[in-house]
Amino acid sequence: MTDLQMPKTSQPYWADSISLPEFSKLEESIKADVGIVGGGITGITAAYLLAKQNVKVVLLDADEILNGTTGHTTAKITAQHGLIYDELIQHFGPEKALQYYNAAEEAKKLIEQNVESLNIDCDYKKEDAILFTNSDSYITQLQNEKKAYDQLKIEHELKDNMPLNIPLKSALIMKNQAQFHPLKYLKVLAEESVKNGAQIYEQTVAVDIEYNKHPSIITKDGHRVTCNHVIAASHFPFYDKESFYFTRMYAERSYIIAVKSPKKYPGGMYINAEEPTRSIRTTNMNDEELWLIVGENHKTGQGKSTMIHYTGLLDFAKQKLGITDFVYRWSAQDLTTLDKLPYIGPVTKEEDNVLVATGFRKWGMTNGTIAAKILSDRILEKDNAYKELFSPARFQADPSIRKFARINADVAKHMVKGKLDNTKNSIDDLSADDATVTRINGKRTGVYKDQNNKIHMVDTTCTHLGCEVEWNSGERSWDCPCHGSRFSYTGEVIEGPAKRPLKKIEDQ
Ligand code: FES
């Protein structure tokens, strides 16, 4: 096999295989019943559900719709969220563990109903989900997970071999799950929302909420959307009313490569239990199978050279699957909460008309869909069986507190480490499309030389709480190891909690 070239850009297959509608920027102050911030799966599904019930919806996206985490997903629609049910039973008890499963199942059904009722051509396909291990030390954990499935009466099978020829010792199969092309599905939901009266605005950055009698979303340009309810579905909540969501979640990056193999894919959506993560599914690209291999997770801003992670996946694919073409590569950022359950509900008790949905722990297709359902039910004054389970106000002391301490000790370590780092690399040695950190007038400075040899310099102090950002070569961004904020090489915010750009350093 000839050496495979790494694709130059990190464009996901999903966005490259569809054209999405474009929406203008918000240029005036307006009123709505519900203002939604974030055009991913949660925001668009909520807009669809609410607009269908004649609720006047305005949806704002800081960039283009479906260009955030939803556009970078693996798009598995499953209640099998890795090793989780045994842990949920231990932590919350069987009743709540079963509720979590039922919520994911309900999300799966809602997606399926939408696909059927709107006749959406989105490569929706039923597949089994397979959680496997090739590590002796994980066999017991897989057996415990099987016991949890037994206890919760989740239909499953435990096997020691599978049709996909990869090394595995044990596999736990959850039947009748599904996969799809997320953007083909959500494009139709967005269009249907607009047909039902929703207004969507792109390139409109929400920066704050003013809460008087009604909440008003304030945009970067100073416009406001005055409404009765706000849904913050912007991945990291753009507004947290000093409830410090960033101390209760951590951000992780993961990597996806899309390759072609001479082998025929035997079906199934695979994910392993151990590290490094290896998740595999296929999709149909022009009547050919495109294999998506996912994994190499690490905390944001704390990876090795990020290109190494793509190489890790490529080596795995070459050795275990045999591949002929390397077609796409991209990466995703996901947020995990202290107890692994998403936060879905009022941002605080006092401001209960501002609703958040975040912390989907890589399972955004089901968690994002159920979030949209829970929040729209709340707005429509309908009861929802899952509202307590996911309430951001919940407090389960034991594991949460230990993890809280761990996450925040890690933040403190990075805060100090970044400040002590006395790196002074030479800019002269920098090649095109590369970056380094140096000191200019004593100030830690991030320097990126673009493909036209133009230098871009930023102050590496994160504008959130002052940790030092690190270079992400795979995405050409500056990423913060503390709470996962990300900035373009010119310093613009790509991802919060930071709201302000990195300070630009002018040429010396
Ligand atoms: Fe919190 Fe950077 S994201 S300090």
TrEMBL record:
<feature type="domain" description="Rieske">
    <location>
        <begin position="422"/>
        <end position="508"/>
    </location>
</feature>
<keyword id="KW-0411">Iron-sulfur</keyword>
<dbReference type="InterPro" id="IPR036922">
    <property type="entry name" value="Rieske_2Fe-2S_sf"/>
</dbReference>
<keyword id="KW-0479">Metal-binding</keyword>
<keyword id="KW-0408">Iron</keyword>
<keyword id="KW-1015">Disulfide bond</keyword>
<dbReference type="GO" id="GO:0016705">
    <property type="term" value="F:oxidoreductase activity, acting on paired donors, with incorporation or reduction of molecular oxygen"/>
</dbReference>
<dbReference type="InterPro" id="IPR036188">
    <property type="entry name" value="FAD/NAD-bd_sf"/>
</dbReference>
<dbReference type="InterPro" id="IPR005805">
    <property type="entry name" value="Rieske_Fe-S_prot_C"/>
</dbReference>
<dbReference type="Pfam" id="PF01266">
    <property type="entry name" value="DAO"/>
</dbReference>
<protein>
    <submittedName>
        <fullName>FAD-dependent oxidoreductase</fullName>
    </submittedName>
</protein>
<dbReference type="GO" id="GO:0004497">
    <property type="term" value="F:monooxygenase activity"/>
</dbReference>
<dbReference type="InterPro" id="IPR038010">
    <property type="entry name" value="YhfW_C"/>
</dbReference>
<dbReference type="InterPro" id="IPR017941">
    <property type="entry name" value="Rieske_2Fe-2S"/>
</dbReference>
<dbReference type="GO" id="GO:0046872">
    <property type="term" value="F:metal ion binding"/>
</dbReference>
<keyword id="KW-0175">Coiled coil</keyword>
<dbReference type="InterPro" id="IPR006076">
    <property type="entry name" value="FAD-dep_OxRdtase"/>
</dbReference>
<keyword id="KW-0001">2Fe-2S</keyword>
<dbReference type="Pfam" id="PF00355">
    <property type="entry name" value="Rieske"/>
</dbReference>
<dbReference type="GO" id="GO:0016020">
    <property type="term" value="C:membrane"/>
</dbReference>
<feature type="coiled-coil region">
    <location>
        <begin position="101"/>
        <end position="159"/>
    </location>
</feature>
<dbReference type="GO" id="GO:0051537">
    <property type="term" value="F:2 iron, 2 sulfur cluster binding"/>
</dbReference>
<dbReference type="GO" id="GO:0005737">
    <property type="term" value="C:cytoplasm"/>
</dbReference>
